[in-house]
Amino acid sequence: MFTAPFKPSPSVSWYLINDASALKGKTLGNNVELSELVLSRMMMTIRDTVRNAKGQQVLRTLKDKRLLCSEPEMKAHLAELMVRQEGLCAITRLPLHVDGQEDLDYDMLASVDRIDSNGHYEPKNVQLVCRFVNFWKCSQENGKFMELLDKVVSNSLQPQA
């Protein structure tokens, strides 16, 4: 079972779940539900990214990405972020989805994003975002990405000729 070394805010319900089937039909919303499965998937993604991005040349030069803390420290930080962000994407504020939920939309899965895309994986440089946001953001800096999103939103609200 997952345990966290912190106390969530009273406004957020915290469920300790060790069975993905318990997540069926749930989104995070106001009832933040985390399971070991969700945190393990996010940590596996960080491990794979770090392992496969050491500045080597393939057809292009990949960024050098490192995990600058222990895996248990990062895992605890991700759990804390999920509570602090109230189960919402740090950029769009859309509800994050979790592995195993019945109406799972893979584009909405909780995904670990490096705030400074040139930086490494460390607690002060990560946020939880929707998977599609992480793909769209790619290597953009947070500020520039937000500026581009604002342009898209403001343009989409204008009447079409």
Overview of the structural elements:
The chain is α+β, with helices and mostly antiparallel strands. It has a single domain, classed as Herpes Virus-1 (2-Layer Sandwich). Helices cover 33% and strands 12% of the residues. The strands form 2 sheets. The protein has a two-stranded parallel ribbon. It has a two-stranded antiparallel sheet with strand order 3-4. The chain is globular, with a radius of gyration of 17 Å.
Largest sheet: 2 strands, parallel
Contiguous low-pLDDT stretches (5 residues minimum) are: 1-32
What's the architecture in CATH terms? 2-Layer Sandwich
Q: Please count the beta strands (DSSP E, at least 2 residues each).
A: 4
Beta-strand portion reads 5-15%
Q: Which topology does CATH recognise?
A: Herpes Virus-1
Estimate the global geometry from the Cα principal axes: globular
Radius of gyration: 17 Å
N→C terminal distance: 56 Å
Mean pLDDT: 79
Strand order of the largest sheet: 1-2
* Relative helix content: 25-40%
In brief:
With 161 residues, the protein is α+β, with helices and mostly antiparallel strands. The chain has a single domain (13-156), classed as Herpes Virus-1 (2-Layer Sandwich).
List the helices and strands and how they pair.
Elements: E1 13-17, E2 31-35, H1 36-52, H2 71-84, E3 110-114, E4 126-130, H3 131-137, H4 142-156
Parallel strand pairs: 1-2
Antiparallel strand pairs: 3-4
Helix pairs in contact: 1-2
